[in-house]
Amino acid sequence: MSAAAEAPDATAPLLTDVDEVLSTTRAVRRRLDLGRPVPRAVLERCIELARQAPMAENREVARFVVIEDPGVRAQVAAVYRRAIEDHVTTPLRISAERRAAAGKPPREPRPEMARAMVSAQHLVDHFHEVPAQILVGSVDRVPQEPRGPFASMFYGSVYPALWSLQLALRSRGLGSALTCIHLHYEREVAEILDLPEQFTQVALLPVAYTRGLDFKAARRAPADEVVTWR
């Protein structure tokens, strides 16, 4: 047998237990391996799997823009960083300053929220370094009446594919995090990527191999608090 035949298939899943993949696909930020390249063939296979997701009216409107070029990634990351600064960091700082001026004690975040904030800041600092960014969107614009069945049909034709993509990535040892803060400056990203006017951006995923595969299921409320039987 040739060496080529013996080489492992990089596009094949590493995790094959469906329940494990479904229960341990997390938003990965600090454990992204920024120095390990991601083969294009792996991303192509994951996107092909994502395209099998359900869609409204049997119309395939979901689209995937894979950003590999370091210069382009840096430009998108700069927009992402500014969106975080303008719409998260600065409002939190102003709120803290106002509380201090009013003689009120600072708000202490819940431990899990504090950890999430540290993790989110790590992603902000390294967003430009991830091997791939994947922008997921739709060839349609958001309906003028974005609620009820209209919203369900629009987003229901994108989010199933987006989640399937994250599951496929996880099964192959890659991590991702669903982000959308850049949408405050959607048109700037559209100009960077030369996207058509009709294209609606929905989410931006940083993608990289993870350091280790040992992710755990998240804590959730007891089933009887979220499930109703009739």
TrEMBL record:
UniProt domain Nitroreductase: residue ranges = 31-209
Q: Which InterPro entries match?
A: Nitroreductase (IPR029479), Nitroreductase-like (IPR000415), Nitroreductase/BluB (IPR050627)
Listed A to Z, the keywords are: Flavoprotein, FMN, Oxidoreductase
Does the record bear Flavoprotein in its keywords?
A: yes
State the Pfam families in the record: Nitroreductase
Q: Does the keyword Methyltransferase apply?
A: no
State the source organism's domain of life: Bacteria
**Protein name per UniProt:** Nitroreductase family protein
Q: Whose protein is this, by species?
A: Conexibacter stalactiti
Q: What is the lineage of its organism?
A: Bacteria, Bacillati, Actinomycetota, Thermoleophilia, Solirubrobacterales
